[in-house]
Amino acid sequence: MLSQQLVNGIMLGSVYAMVAVALTLSIGVLNFLNFSIPGLFMIGGMSIWALTNAGMPWPVAAACALVIVAAASMVVELFTWRWMRGAEHFVPLVSSMAFLLLFEHLAIAYFGSDLRVVNVGFAQADIRIAGLVIGIPQLIGLIVSIFLIWGLSALLKYTRFGRALRTIAEDSDTAIILGVDINRIVPVVFVVAGLFAAFAGIVFALNYRQVWPFMGELVGLKGISAMIVGGMGNIWGSIAGGLIIGIAEVLAIGYFGGDFVDIAVFGLLLLILFVRPTGLFSRTVATRSGI
Fold it and tell me: Around Cβ 33, how many Cβ atoms within 10 Å?
């Protein structure tokens, strides 16, 4: 049924949207694509599996997973920005990619490379509305995702912290002259982006009940696609892009089979780039301050 496929696509798209927002924060403020985001997504998912498997209640496990990812984000910030911001522009990107590989192989060394099943009490619970089946974890994830993204948007638009971020996005040297403490602001950007990625990983783990060390790679590609489709540096555009990618993926599975998923998703990405290279919801002139 088409309506059910659309619902499933929106639920999956919310995960991609969260990853896209995390990537958008990095590229919008710091002007580099933080490739550690897929690794942080994986850490969030693998952490909640490991902690619930050890007997911890899932809400506590989710909170602990967020703390673990926040700590990992601080380590990434230390080695990709703080120590290397004076290096060539590509160095932070390469460093963040190294962290992705490091996180994945640490997970393999500690947990193995096999797919793991996440067992939580409500994993199979669902509600039925007008013939549509909606999983409770999916619905909770969607609602919380919308709330978090709305809160981030309001933070960027109406607070002093948001103004500082926009100043850094325009010109970090000017921000320093204006008195913005970059050494305090930028770590917060890394942590917030990491928490968005971690929450996406937790929602993915609870919804689809499976995790593995390389789970972040494909989701990261879909998140990048969502960011590009929506418009680089545009948070609400990233959300729209995530939903579009999620719906395209689910419809491709439903009508053409799993083998056509990547063809449909990345073919759609190419089509949109041909029609509108700056993304569907970009500003007339693409700028880093689109956040």
Answer: 17
Beta-carbon contacts of 194 under 8 Å, excluding residues fewer than 6 positions away, are: 22, 37, 40, 69, 70, 72, 73, 76
Range from 11-20, 171-180, 214-223 carrying the lowest mean pLDDT: 171-180
The dihedral over CA atoms of 30, 234, 231, 77, expressed in degrees to the nearest 10, equals 20
Angle, vertex CA 196, rays to CA 41 and CA 143, nearest 5: 115
Q: How confident is the model at residue 284 (pLDDT cuts 50, 70, 90)?
A: very low
Give the integer Cα–Cα distance in Å for 87 and 38: 24
Q: Compute CA distances 166 → 102, 157, 191, 289, whole Å.
A: 31, 9, 17, 6
Q: Distance (Å, rounded) from C-alpha 253 to C-alpha 230?
A: 22
Q: Name the nearest CA neighbour of 8 among 137, 117, 122, 120.
A: 137
> In this predicted structure, what is the pLDDT of residue 283?
55
User: Around Cβ 89, how many Cβ atoms within 10 Å?
Assistant: 9
Q: Distance between CA atoms of 262 and 48, rounded to whole angstroms?
A: 28
DSSP letter (8 states) at residue 114: S
- The tens digit of pLDDT for each residue in 158-187 reads 888 888 887 877 777 777 777 777 888 889
